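Is this the right way to post structure tokens for a design question? Let me know if I should format differently. Anyway, here goes:
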């Protein structure tokens, strides 16, 4: 059984290490036994944290987009060790004996940050191991029978979109994405 977690991150730059993860959210997004997908009845099973930066380097544009106060986070943000360990424990608790899988749209940015932070800071490492991840953008491209370059979020069919706004707040965006994920998983796709 796979148990899915929609993830969204807000950062102060393009890559982990030289730059910092400032906030992230995880939202329970459903389960799949290989035959049947079960979407959650709500998107209220969530985990959200704001973190203390790990470096002095940052990009002003990244902060403008996410609206986070980096100076406040330097003073008040949770340590990465505490936040990532708590997140890993929460994920394992929600997943139970099933396998947790991280989902995002697109996956590459959020996966890179979260995997690096889990490996570097969580007491027991990544709850997603080294590869339990699912790219919603690729799933949509395959089911819609279109090239990956044409499968951006703005190209989603109206019936697959979420009614939640994309705000660049990690929790809002992880909820929006969880709904899109469930819609794509339950969509039969375009016939061929």
């Amino acid at each position: 059984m796979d148990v899915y977690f929609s993830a969204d991150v807000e950062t102060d730059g393009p890559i982990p290490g030289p730059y910092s993860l400032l906030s992230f959210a995880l939202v329970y997004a459903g389960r799949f036994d290989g035959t049947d997908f079960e979407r959650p009845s709500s998107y209220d099973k969530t985990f959200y944290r704001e973190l203390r930066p790990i470096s002095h380097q940052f990009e002003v544009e990244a902060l403008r987009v996410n609206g986070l106060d980096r100076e406040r986070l330097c003073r008040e943000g949770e340590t990465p060790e505490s936040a990532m360990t708590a997140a890993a424990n929460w994920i394992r608790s929600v997943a139970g004996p099933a396998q947790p899988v991280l989902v995002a749209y697109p996956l590459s940015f959020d996966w890179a940050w979260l995997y690096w932070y889990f490996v570097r800071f969580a007491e027991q490492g990544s709850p997603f191991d080294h590869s339990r991840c699912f790219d919603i953008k690729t799933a949509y491209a395959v089911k819609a029978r279109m090239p990956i370059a044409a499968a951006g979020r703005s190209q989603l069919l109206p019936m697959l979109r979420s009614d939640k706004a994309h705000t660049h707040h990690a929790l809002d965006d992880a909820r929006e994405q969880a709904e899109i994920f469930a819609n794509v998983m339950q969509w039969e796709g375009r016939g061929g």
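Format looks fine. Someone answered above. Worth noting: DSSP finds six helices and six strands in the chain. The CA atoms of residues 8 and 170 lie 5 Å apart.
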